[in-house]
Amino acid sequence: xxxxxxxxxxxxxxxxxxxxxxxxxxxxxxxxxxxxxxxxxxxxxxxxxxxxxxxxxxxxxxxxxxxxxxxxxxxxxxxxxxxxx
Length: 85
Known about the structure:
The chain is mainly alpha-helical and 85 residues long. Helices cover 41% and strands 5% of the residues. The longest helix has 23 residues, at 2-24.
């Protein structure tokens, strides 16, 4: 519904704002994810700058969990029991 979509847009904008603040504050740590065999690092043009290597100590991919529509709605503060379409 329109209300949930508006909340989703607001949620994404807030996340983007927080990410910008983190970058401006100097937090540019490596934090890539991997989903099954797919990792954005495989296609990244900045590998030479980032230097992320899973073989190095402390470098690990984040694992993304599968979310159901009701989980997403709850996360963004949508109406309880409604689903994102």
